[in-house]
Write a structure and sequence with these properties.
A 10-stranded mixed beta sheet has the order 6-13-7-8-12-9-11-10-14-15, with helices on both faces. The protein contains 26 helices and 30 strands. By secondary structure, the protein is of the alpha/beta class.
């Protein structure tokens, strides 16, 4: 049999993940000769060998690719037969202004963890990495992904590491962050109580001039650090994408101290467990949840609690944000700690971005923590830990950051040059290159100066990193959003203004490559409507160009405007006043007895005089009102606290059953709009009858599911549309989403919800981009 030559052009996430060494190995394994090389667009492979050998190679290419690689497409071309004496990895080169994908940061692999235990330059070394793991996005400054264009450029490679870097068969061949104790970054432990006044400045200066390798006593650092944590201390540790604060997750005093430091009254903390067996002691775990926990991304996974660690971790919510170690130092620390779980939260003060600068870490936390551990590898792109939840047996990304960014969403549209600026809350922006949408890491709420600076800095970096030439801008309809105003700096480029809930639905459509009319159901807390009111429970018919609002929850005054988002009791009073008039004050409700009568009277006057009482159709505010009536939450110390506590009132065994729901739900009138005040009336009756919170929560959730189903069914009969798109932050509720999907699918609807992109406002920018791209393509811009 004669030899043949084939060329493969591989696109996708195939650089920075050990792809070329992998190709080299399988080519040798199958007796093939030729070469592989990176370009700024793709990986090109040329092979000569027997047809059977090439088929085996292609099978290995698909089945055995590195875990972080994502092959989008393989273009095959048969060439005239070429003779090669061996197989080689050729130098990278640029072929155009296009770019290849950048790998997200990858959790440390098992092989590298074994290296820490071996004698040599990596014994106990906390920055060990290889082509299969380690920092990527957090250290990259520019493309192509070479060491000189990362923050590792400050650390000259020692001869031993250089040999590994150049050896094709080595696991560290072309591993750009390669390092060892002789040539790489290092940690330093600082005991803050010794630092006062000028001494802090002196320590900062020492850190800045420190030479690589000067600090070698990592074992001593870990010993001191673990002693502090095990004895109730709070420590700051510089991590992969920013500073973290940590303490013993079983120590009430330490958790309280950490809350005081962060000025974070009750928002649940994430917990890092020693290993998967430790997680299983405190949380129920499905196969899908375990798969996410143990994946190379190592996100925070929201799990149902089985056994409480401390009361201060969850603040009444029946979920725990669990994660496993993902950096070498995490594993090393647990090998010294007595505790099997630590709180690990972002190193920042409330409503500010995670810190990445050593100076700022010392300035903010030297007087607040018991120890600070810093390293001298700069973080260029800050990233928080990502958060996911398994709903309907699928991983749903709630906060998309470390491990997921900057992997693109592949669009069925040409999005080149589009900048989508996102929403005001849970902001992510999006930039378009070719047919790929690059969504930023989680930025946060654009309400403080520091977060706004982070937003603008990161936007500028994405434009530079992905070689974007802006031609079209997409913004939210709300004129006062920081993100909307930011687009003004790109004048006179054309601007596409996108209604918030249209963007929610379009975001889900973009993830699933839908480009047709659908029934869109957008449920969230706040979004500016085109009638000037606050929307949030919207039933739309829409495509990627435009939308028609079919129906919504009936409008209700939002007393105090944004303040009502933070004080759910205001929404409860607003509903009661609409239903009963002033007579609601005579109803025997425990929640009213616990509410200041003067405040209630003030709210009634505000509603009567229409003072700071915008109208809202928000489903999120309805959930708030019910949580207040059930005395679960009167003043929220973090977003969606009321709805989360309401969902927690459901037992883990409960699931929506269509056959039973009609016996366990409230009535709801339809007459052009959806009168959810009937639901409140039913809940009030149940409370007076003595029905427990769990049963009321079940009936309430069942009612919302049935309302969605009946409304969608009615729209479908009128319009002949069978595809339903669910989006918005309210669909982060597991019971609600699973129940809604179940009843719709049982009735033969095609149902789409979000998984890879947040259904909350973190996905808004993707929807804005899809709408802008489609309008441009159809000449509507």
């Amino acid at each position: 049999m004669k030899n043949i030559t084939i060329q493969l052009v591989v696109t996708g996430l195939v650089q920075g993940v050990g792809f070329r060494p992998f190709i080299y190995r399988i080519a040798l394994n199958h007796g093939l000769h030729g070469w592989v090389k990176n370009t700024n667009e793709n990986v090109i492979i040329r092979l000569t060998g027997k047809a059977e050998q090439i088929e085996y190679f292609l099978s290995s290419l698909s089945k055995e690719a590195p875990q972080a690689a994502m092959i989008e497409n393989i273009l095959k071309e048969f060439l005239e037969t070429e003779d090669f004496s061996d197989f080689r990895i050729l130098e990278s080169h640029n072929v155009s202004e296009e770019i290849t994908e950048i790998s997200p940061d990858i959790a440390v692999c098992n092989d590298c963890l074994k290296d820490i235990e071996l004698k040599g330059n990596r014994l106990d070394y906390p920055f060990v990495n290889c082509t299969n793991c380690g920092p990527r996005f957090t250290i990259i400054r520019d493309l192509p992904y070479d060491r000189a264009k990362t923050t590792m450029s400050l650390f000259p490679i020692c001869p031993d590491c250089l040999k590994e870097y150049r050896t094709i068969s080595d696991r560290r061949f072309h591993a750009q962050p390669i390092a060892c104790s002789k040539c790489g970054p290092n940690y330093e432990l600082i005991i803050p109580h010794k630092l006062v006044g000028k001494e802090i400045i002196e320590i900062i200066e020492i850190i800045e001039i420190k030479e690589p390798g000067e600090i070698k006593e990592i074992v001593e650092i870990l010993g001191r650090l673990s002693h502090i944590i095990d004895n109730g201390g709070v420590v700051a540790i510089k991590g992969l994408g920013g500073l973290n604060l940590a303490c013993d997750a079983f120590n009430d005093g330490a958790v309280t101290k950490l809350r005081n430091i962060k000025n974070r009254e009750s928002k649940p903390f994430a917990v890092m467990f020693r290993d998967i067996e430790s997680v299983k002691q405190y949380a129920t775990l499905s196969q899908e949840e375990e798969k996410s926990l143990c994946s190379w991304r190592k996100p925070i996974v929201l799990l149902e609690i089985k056994k409480t660690l401390t009361k201060g971790i969850n603040s009444g919510v029946n979920l725990i944000g669990a994660m496993l170690p993902y950096m070498p130092i995490h594993y090393q620390l647990f090998s010294h700690l007595s505790t099997s779980a630590i709180v690990l939260t972002s190193g920042n003060l409330s409503n500010e971005p995670i810190l990445i600068e050593n100076k700022e870490a010392l300035r903010q936390f030297s007087s607040l923590t018991d120890a600070i551990v810093l390293h001298n590898r700069d973080i260029y792109n800050r990233t928080d830990d990502s958060v996911v939840r398994i709903i309907g047996a699928k991983e749903r990304v709630f906060r998309r950051s470390r491990g997921y960014v900057p992997a693109p969403v592949r669009m069925g549209l040409h999005v080149d040059g589009i900048l989508a600026f996102g929403a005001e809350l849970s902001n992510c922006f999006c930039v378009g290159k070719g047919d790929k949408a690059f969504i930023s890491q989680h930025i946060g709420d654009l309400k403080g100066l520091e977060t706004t600076i982070f937003y603008e800095e990161t936007l500028a970096r994405f434009i530079q990193l992905f070689r974007i030439k802006p031609t079209l801008l997409a913004v939210d309809l709300h004129p006062d959003y920081v993100s909307t105003r930011r687009a003004e700096k790109f004048a006179p480029l054309p601007v596409v203004i996108v209604q918030h809930h249209h963007a929610h639905v379009a975001s889900c459509m973009a993830e699933h490559k839908l480009d047709e009319k659908v029934i869109g159901v957008a449920f969230d807390g706040t979004g500016y409507g085109d009638d000037g009111n606050i929307w949030g429970a919207e039933f739309l018919i829409c495509d990627l160009v435009d939308y028609q609002r079919i129906t919504h929850f009936d409008y209700l005054p939002l007393p105090g405007g944004d303040l009502a988002n933070e004080e759910p009791w205001r929404m409860a009073v607003s509903y009661l006043y609409k239903i009963y008039g002033r007579e609601f004050l005579d109803i025997d409700l425990q929640f009213l007895k616990e509410t200041d009568p003067e405040k209630v009277e003030m709210l009634i006057r505000m509603i009567d005089r229409k003072i700071n009482c915008p109208l809202t159709s928000s489903s999120g505010r309805l959930f708030d009102a019910v949580a207040s009536l059930l005395r679960l939450c009167q003043v929220a110390s973090f977003p969606a606290q009321g709805p989360m506590l309401l969902e927690s009132s459901l037992t883990s065994e409960m699931s929506f059953q269509q056959e039973e729901s009609e016996f366990m739900q409230y009535s709801c009138r339809f007459d052009g709009t959806i009168h959810v005040e009937d639901i409140i009336h039913g809940i009030v009756d149940d409370l007076q009858f003595g029905t427990n919170n769990g049963m009321i929560a079940v009936k309430f959730h069942n009612t919302i599911i049935s309302v969605i189903f009946e409304t969608v069914k009615s729209i479908s009969l009128q319009e002949g549309i069978n595809k339903v798109v669910l989006s918005g932050g309210v669909f982060q509720n597991k019971y609600l989403l699973e129940g809604t999907e179940s009843i719709l699918k049982k009735n033969n609807f095609q149902v789409y919800s979000q998984s890879a992109v947040p259904t909350n406002d973190g996905g808004i920018a993707l929807g804005q981009m899809a709408i802008a791209a489609k309008r441009r393509a159809t000449g509507c811009v």
